[in-house]
Specification:
With about 280 residues, the protein is α/β, with parallel strands linked by helices. The strands form two sheets. It has a six-stranded parallel beta sheet.
């Protein structure tokens, strides 16, 4: 569960009148499991997020449960030396703050900038598996398919009705598009693109539209080396520059991760995306 989803769920709890404690890593010095700004939301029977696990989290959960049960007063921010106090090997220290889950605490909760913005074309088996992998990471995903039913009921809350693509805040948005090349043309500059629709003709149209742009990040196409050669032949016929064709990643996924099962392909592609440099081009 990424930060945007944790915050969304916390807002639902608040709307439902559910009592919870917000645990925040307020400051970090030296090595620590998570960075400053990390939050965990603790209710009596459920926890959203993590501040890093281990003894530190165990201690924070005990404190939060004590607050929920009225067994202790709200503490001032606590400075914890991970080695001397908790026996953890990180060597640094963290300052933890506790507060009730409230409107004010949600307003003050700034989401981290996404690692990258991905436009994913296709809600088939690999697309579904990739979204499952990436949803636990702070990335922004616009997931596009011409078939609403392809997303499934699980993703119904994320379907968008707007005509214009939104800003690239962290989170998942599902778009039903009669012509996904329109989304390819209008996607934010610098966004990464991964094309894996249910139809090779549509794949080609999307890739051609993306490579006509000069402001995209990484552009990937699922398929074999044979598929790539066929696409390159057709793209040359359209007069596309060789440099842009060379920038297309196909096949996709780290070569060191072998396997054709959708979940394995998804892990290989996710690792490739996370390893891209800031400019988005494959090293």
């Amino acid at each position: 569960m990424n930060t945007a989803e944790i915050k969304r769920r916390a807002a639902q709890w608040l709307a439902q009148g559910r009592t919870a404690v917000l645990v925040k890593v307020q400051e970090v010095k030296g090595s620590a499991p998570r960075g400053a700004g990390t939050r965990m939301v603790v209710a009596e029977d459920e926890v959203l997020g993590t501040i890093g696990g281990g003894h530190l989290e165990w201690m924070a959960l005990a404190t939060a449960k004590g607050l929920l049960q009225g067994r202790q007063d709200w503490p001032a921010p606590q400075r914890v030396a991970l080695g001397p106090t908790l026996g953890q090997c990180c060597g640094g220290s963290v300052e933890l703050a506790y507060e009730p889950l409230a409107e004010a605490s949600l307003r003050a909760w700034a989401l981290p900038a996404p690692r990258f913005h991905l436009c994913l074309y296709g809600a088939g088996h690999v697309g579904q598996a990739l979204v499952r992998v990436l949803r636990d990471i702070d990335v922004s995903i616009d997931w596009i398919d011409s078939r609403e039913e392809a997303f499934g009921t699980e993703y119904a809350p994320y379907l968008q009705n707007a005509v214009v693509m939104p800003n690239t805040e962290s989170g998942l948005r599902c778009w039903v598009s009669e012509d996904p090349t329109h989304e390819a043309a209008g996607a934010p500059a610098g966004a990464h693109h991964l094309v894996m629709t249910h139809h090779h003709g549509l794949d080609f149209d999307i890739v051609a539209r993306l490579l006509q742009r000069t402001d995209t990040g990484w552009v990937g196409l699922i398929g074999s080396k044979t598929k790539r050669r066929q696409f390159e032949h057709r793209l040359r016929a359209r007069g596309l520059a060789a440099e842009r064709m060379a920038s297309l990643a196909c096949p996709v996924g780290l070569d060191s991760i072998a396997g054709k099962e959708p979940a394995v392909v998804a892990v290989a592609v996710a690792a490739q995306l996370l390893g891209l440099p800031a400019g988005g081009h494959q090293p």
